[in-house]
C-alpha cells in the first residue's frame, strides 16, 4: 500500500512537471509563434493557446493533486491529438528529422493510469474530497 501511494504520487508529480515545462516552453516561444506553427500543420491556431494553458495550469494542478482525474482526461485528449495530427505519420520512433510518438504515448498512458486510479492519498484531492484513494 505504501509503495503504491509513492508510485502514484511520483507518477502524478513527474507528469505534472513535464506538462508544466511544455506549457512554459510554449509561452517562452511566444504563443503567436506557436499559433502559426499549429496553423501550418492544419490545427486551428487558437488551439495553441488552449494547449499551452492546459499544459501549464494542468501541470501545476497535477503536481498538487488537484482535480487529478479531470486534468488527466484533458492530457489524454491533448496527447491523442498530438499523436494523430503531428506524430503518427513519422511512426513510433520517428525519423532523422522528427521524433516519433513514443513519448506522447507514454505520457498518455500515465494520464490514463491517473484517470483510472486517481491522485493517491498524498494529494489535495484527498483532503478536499475527504475520500480514501483506492489502493
UniProtKB/TrEMBL annotation:
Belongs to the DoxX family. It is found in: Cell membrane. The keyword Transmembrane applies. It is a multi-pass membrane protein. Keywords: Cell membrane, Membrane, Transmembrane, Transmembrane helix. It holds the Pfam family DoxX. The lineage of its organism: Bacteria, Bacillati, Bacillota, Bacilli, Bacillales. This is DoxX family protein. GO terms for cellular component: plasma membrane. The chain crosses the membrane at residues 47-67, 74-93, 105-129.
Amino acid at each position: 500500500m505504501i509503495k503504491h501511494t509513492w508510485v502514484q504520487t511520483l507518477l502524478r508529480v513527474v507528469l505534472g512537471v513535464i506538462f508544466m515545462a511544455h506549457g512554459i516552453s510554449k509561452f517562452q516561444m511566444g504563443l503567436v509563434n506557436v499559433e502559426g506553427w499549429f496553423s501550418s500543420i492544419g490545427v486551428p491556431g487558437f488551439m495553441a493557446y488552449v494547449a499551452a494553458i492546459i499544459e501549464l495550469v494542468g501541470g501545476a494542478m497535477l503536481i498538487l493533486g488537484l482535480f487529478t482525474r479531470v486534468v488527466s482526461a484533458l492530457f489524454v485528449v491533448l496527447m491523442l491529438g498530438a499523436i494523430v495530427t503531428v506524430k503518427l505519420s513519422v511512426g513510433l520512433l520517428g525519423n532523422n528529422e522528427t521524433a516519433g510518438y513514443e513519448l506522447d504515448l507514454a505520457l498518455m498512458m500515465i494520464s490514463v493510469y491517473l484517470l483510472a486510479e486517481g491522485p493517491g492519498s498524498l494529494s489535495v484531492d484527498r483532503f478536499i474530497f475527504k475520500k480514501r484513494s483506492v489502493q
